[in-house]
Amino acid sequence: MGLMRRIRGPAPGQVPDWAVFLTASEYKRFRQLVDEWLRAHSRGFREAGGGGIDIDLGAEKPHMIGLVNLAQKCNLTPAEDWPVLIAAHLDSLLNTDAIDPDPPFESVKSVLKVRIYPEDFAAGLPTGELMLVTRPLAPGLLAALAIDYPRTVATVPPDTAAGWGIPIDELFEIGLANVREQDRPGVQRQPLDGGARISLLIGDSFFTATWVLMLDEFLTPSTPHGALVAVPNRHVVIFAPIVDLSIVEGIQAVMSRAVQMYRDGPGPISPAIYWRRGDSLILLPTRYEDETAFFEPPAEFIDVLNQLHKPSPTS
CB 3.0–4.6 Å: which of 27, 126, 155, 199 could bond 15 by disulfide? Predict the structure, then answer.
């Protein structure tokens, strides 16, 4: 199966674009299970586009949820387990009445974290950017303050952060420190042909992708040229240090894994690849034609490649 076929999935019209990893019959069953649960637990619901659902829970404002992550979870789960999975997922999203909408800082300080989201995440929220305290990272990526409650993750609205009276920079520092202490990922090292090697940070935490901001702790060997990185979904960071010309092989490996893991999820963030140099993340553009990927890096990145040597026989 070609790369673009894996991205596109079934033929157009069988399932919506956001669920192309499911077959037509799988999508039909998925929606039947979701709709049955929502009919039993809400006053009504309607499509909001892009996998979003507006749900009437009797509150003054509609409650909106996304189905993309749930569909991806089902795609990775045996079909007979879907009813329990769907019920548990929707229950955790909707039954959050105990959460204080404007919590005192001390009550959430230990669970305040930084989470990586796709750049267009705010566009899918009923109140858009009003729900988020963010920092742009690179084209396609942003970092946001979030509270890691036991049953759900809530973003921090700007008004709430302002009420705490603590500088935003300090809040982000606290959030990163909590991720470092509570959400350390596992590491997989994958050798490739030609001496190249890529690594994956993997974890069940929704904050695993945040480690792209703390990658120096895992970059071995250290290199002044930085690393190639990708954050395809919330549970993975893919990276390869730029040490020698074996990185050329690593580019293709990171690209293919990023596209696949973005599609499979759950929690898709971006299929793009980036150049992490110092504290910066620089987008390395890629375009696709038919089933072929074309890597189109900026001149600065090409200059670095031209400075690299061939890998030694022992590398």
Answer: 27
| Structure tokens that stand for 269 in this block | 């963030």
Identify the pLDDT of residue 164: 95
Place of tokens 């994958």: 190
Q: Is residue 162 over pLDDT 90? A: yes
Q: Determine if the pTM surpasses 0.90.
A: no
| Residue range 242-269: mean pLDDT, rounded | 86
* Residue 193 reports pLDDT greater than 60: yes
Residue with tokens 């074996």: 246
d(CA 298, CA 139): 14
Q: What is the DSSP string of 13-64?
A: TSS-GGGTTS-HHHHHHHHHHHHHHHHHHSSEEEEEETTEEEEE-SSSS-EE
170 CB burial (10 A radius; 0-12, 13-18, 19+): exposed
Is 115 in contact with 178 (CB distance < 8 Å)?
no
Judge whether 281 and 226 are in contact, CB under 8 Å. Answer: no
Distances (CA, A) of 39 to 35, 44, 50, 85: 6, 6, 20, 17
Residues in the chain: 315
Distance between CA atoms of residues 22 and 15, nearest Å: 8
Dihedral pair phi/psi, residue 283, rounded to 5°? -65, 135
